[in-house]
Amino acid sequence: MKPLNLTAGLQLLAGQSGRPRRFRILAYSGGMLRVDGFEFPVVVDLSGLSAGGNVPIILDHTADVDHTVGSTDSIVNNGQTLVMAGVVTGATPRVQQVLAASDNGQQWQASVGCSVEQSEEIP
């Protein structure tokens, strides 16, 4: 299996009174991608993509408590787009810096990783 990382926009949403903040990631919206490790542009066939359960959302690809922003509670694949949403649970200084910067207008990107189990070249 070959890893595939996609870059997508990340929205950090304000929490409603007494509720934790949320995030939303438009992880893929179709089209050709230039991906390291692949000679030609990549198009993801969302009909063959499976994702389920709670996916951790982490900073800088570092899977530890200090870098954990939260986890998904919704992954919607309608065959044309892939949208991930969830709750912000991180409380570390690094996560608080990300939230504060977002509140000040910083636009963040997410890198979404998956494993390629089958690929085919299309002329």
Task: Give an overview in words.
By secondary structure, the chain is mainly β. The protein is built from one helix and six strands, in the order E-E-E-E-E-H-E. It has a six-stranded antiparallel beta sheet. A hairpin with an 8-residue loop joins strand 1 and strand 2 (22-28). The longest helix is centred in the C-terminal third of the chain and has 11 residues, at 93-103. It is elongated and about 50 Å long.
The ordered H/E elements are EEEEEHE
Give a short account of the largest sheet. 6 strands, antiparallel
- State mean pLDDT (0 to 100 scale): 84
Question: Cα-atom Rg, whole angstroms?
Answer: 16 Å
> Which structural class best describes the helix and strand composition?
mainly beta
Point out poorly predicted stretches.
none
Count of DSSP H/I helices: 1
Helix amount, in percent?
under 10%
Q: Largest beta sheet: what is the strand line-up? A: 3-4-5-2-1-6
Distance between the termini: 22 Å
Total strand segments: 6
Summarize the structure.
It contains one helix and six strands, in the order βββββαβ.
Topology:
Layout (H helix, E strand, L loop, with lengths): L1 E12 L8 E7 L27 E3 L9 E10 L4 E7 L4 H11 L4 E9 L7
Antiparallel strand pairs: 1-2, 1-6, 2-5, 3-4, 4-5
What keywords describe this structure?
6-stranded antiparallel beta sheet, mainly beta, elongated, 123 residues
